[in-house]
Amino acid sequence: MLTLYYSPGACSLASLIALEESGLAFEAKRVDFSKAEQQSPEYLRLNPKGRVPVLIAEKGAISETPAILAYVAQIAKSARLAPLDDLFEFALMQSFNNYLCATVHVNHAHGRRGYRWTDDEAARETMKAKVPQTMGESLGLIETSMLRGPWVMGKDYSVADAYLFTMFGWAKGDGVDLDRLPKLGEHRARMLERPAVQRAREIERA
Ligand SMILES: N[C@@H](CCC(=O)N[C@@H](CS)C(=O)NCC(=O)O)C(=O)O
Q1: C-alpha span between 172 and 153 (Å, rounded)
Q2: Domain that includes residue 20, residue range
Q3: Site to substitute for ligand 1 among 35, 38, 44, 52, most atoms within 8 A of C-beta
Q4: Is the peptide bond before 150 cis (omega within 30 degrees of 0)?
Q5: pLDDT tens readout for residues 160-199
Q6: E strands along 44-102, which residues?
């Protein structure tokens, strides 16, 4: 049995959606950030990074969203959550997911988690003020050059869609002008129609 540790509103939503899409049996365990549970000794034993998500699989723990998404897609082959038969297309999906992980997510974190990079309060405010621009630019690049449509990889849905949905869900709160991202808005609407997405959001709300 797989166990996913998640926190509502966090990037772990992408992994929750992927697991719901996969049809695999899994348990979702909530990590309460308001109680700093991600820093508890029990949680740090599972994921010493002190972050969500972490997926506990038979052989051990997997952290980092792109790794979890690729693993889920690979072990649930029949759910067709990645272009598993085409190594080049798979690499492109990984390229997309890593852009979300290493650039888009980091842009977002500069707004709420600036203390990771500086102790200087004024510098943190400057970083925060930059978020609408950096998030707007990176999502703008996805809108114009990376999202093939209707899904990220073209006609076939993949775990990259779950990840994009999660990151785009932060855009409004980050002060991004959503009117400039119509394709992403349509992608979000398509995602919201998927039963797996609805179930994952219910888990977050419960
Ligand atoms: N690169 C990691 C980032 C994980 C991450 O930063 N998760 C955030 C939530 S979106 C977290 O756990 N934050 C808790 C904290 O900073 O204490 C991934 O993609 O999984």
Answers
A1: 24
A2: 2-80+198-205
A3: 52
A4: yes
A5: 999 999 999 999 999 999 999 999 999 999 999 999 999 9
A6: 54-57, 60-63
